[in-house]
Amino acid sequence: MFGNMADMMGLMGKMKDLQSRMKEAQESLSGIVETAESGGGMVRATVNGQKNLIGLDIDKELINPDDKEMLQDLIVAAVNKAYERIEPKIKEHLQKATDGVLPNIPGLDLGGLMK
């Protein structure tokens, strides 16, 4: 009976350590950045690991009031591509931060804890 209690206390300690590491990892995600482009490089979007758009560069040749829809489409495409590229970096960062705290459980995705 005492063995189970000790196991439970050990697990609780690991969970507390995991929470602390996840908090630190999430705070440091702002330092991870990814840039993607669309329109052959005429629109570039930069996002960080906290999923914030932190930079947007638009070639001045694209700024034409008569072609607003194309510009909007290129911005959306660049931003979405940057978010796709940052996702694996976020996952890797969180896995490194929690490495050794919990046993490797196949299918366990800690990315969901970030929301």
From TrEMBL:
The keyword Cytoplasm applies. It comes from the Bacteria. GO terms for cellular component: bacterial nucleoid; cytosol. Residues 8-35 form a coiled coil. It is found in: Cytoplasm, Nucleoid. InterPro entries: YbaB-like_sf, YbaB/EbfC. GO terms for molecular function: DNA binding. Keywords: Coiled coil, Cytoplasm, DNA-binding. Pfam families: YbaB_DNA_bd (PF02575). Gene3D superfamilies: Nucleoid-associated protein YbaB-like domain. Belongs to the YbaB/EbfC family. Binds to DNA and alters its conformation. May be involved in regulation of gene expression, nucleoid organization and DNA protection. Homodimer. This is Nucleoid-associated protein DSL64_14705. It comes from Dyadobacter luteus. The lineage of its organism: Bacteria, Pseudomonadati, Bacteroidota, Cytophagia, Cytophagales.
